[in-house]
Write a structure and sequence with these properties.
The protein is of the alpha+beta class. 32% of the residues lie in helices and 21% in strands. The chain is elongated, with a radius of gyration of 27 Å. Keywords: Membrane, Signal, Sugar transport, Transmembrane, Transmembrane helix, Transport.
Length: 262
């Protein structure tokens, strides 16, 4: 009787410890003391500043259609801009922080916002080439937010979100969500800075994650989702999977014992 009770207890312990609990799967949880409030870090509110290897899409329009075509990024027949066209015809920021555009040549953009770049280009074109009658209209945008995500994610790889601002949750949703075996508590962000590369960790189980300056993506971010310990155990991530594994193991052991007694 004691042996039977011990086996039952061990079975329950294995099942409960091997499963991934619901609290490890729910995003942005809050405790009872937290209230639903609009939260945004002052760091998050700061506009993104251009770095090396970023790609800019610059459109310059005037009343002269010929001049306008020099700055358009399109396939010529359709008003569609895709990733390949952006790569070959966009304005890439070189290692010195410059882009090279028609008429103006080298333009320093490193550390500047897209609005600052727009104003600078507009000012130079009006001073050096056009006049007020040209009705100059300029837009400067990042060519989407490129990121790479790997690990316990449904669709790992490199993707682009065509938006001026995106969050880690956007990247995860865009990649099919984190697998049940993924560690949502310690999502690693590898981010490039002018001084080098840094690694940051965000706990997506905690609602306070939205206050983190790393909750919002920056171009060329690398997101790593490490596995939970339950995956390495190999007993299953749900109660049914674990129970099936244990029953199979017990059946195998029982069969070996019975055969050895023959």
């Amino acid at each position: 009787m004691n042996k039977t009770l011990m086996v039952i207890v061990m079975f329950i312990v294995l099942v409960t410890s091997s499963c991934v609990p619901t609290k490890d799967l729910k995003y942005l949880q809050s405790n009872h003391e937290q209230k639903d409030t609009l939260v945004m870090s002052q760091l998050v509110k700061k506009p993104y500043r251009i770095q090396s290897n970023d790609i800019l899409v610059i459109n310059i329009k005037t009343i002269d259609a010929t001049l306008t075509e020099m700055f358009q990024v399109s396939d010529g027949n359709r008003n569609i801009v895709n990733e390949q066209i952006i790569y070959f015809e966009g304005f890439n920021v070189d290692d010195h922080g410059n882009i090279r555009i028609p008429i103006l040549g080298e333009v320093a953009v490193l550390g500047k916002t897209t609005e600052e770049i727009r104003l600078n280009i507009e000012k130079r074109l009006l001073e050096e080439y056009f006049n007020e009658e040209a009705e100059l209209f300029i837009t400067v945008k990042l060519a989407g937010i490129r990121y790479t995500i790997n690990g316990e994610i449904k669709s790992p790889g490199t993707n682009i979100i065509y938006n001026e601002r995106a969050t880690i949750m956007d990247a995860i949703s865009n990649s099919g969500d984190i697998l049940i075996t993924g560690d949502r508590k310690e999502v690693i962000i590898v981010r490039q800075y002018p001084h080098g590369v840094e690694m940051h960790t965000v706990n997506l189980l905690d609602r306070k994650a939205i206050e983190s300056p790393y909750y919002y993506l920056q171009p060329n971010d690398f997101i790593l989702i490490n596995p939970l310990k339950q995956k390495s155990w190999g007993t299953g991530t749900t109660g049914i999977q674990t129970m099936t594994t244990i029953i199979t193991a017990l059946s195998l052991v029982t069969s070996i014992i019975l055969l050895s007694r023959l």
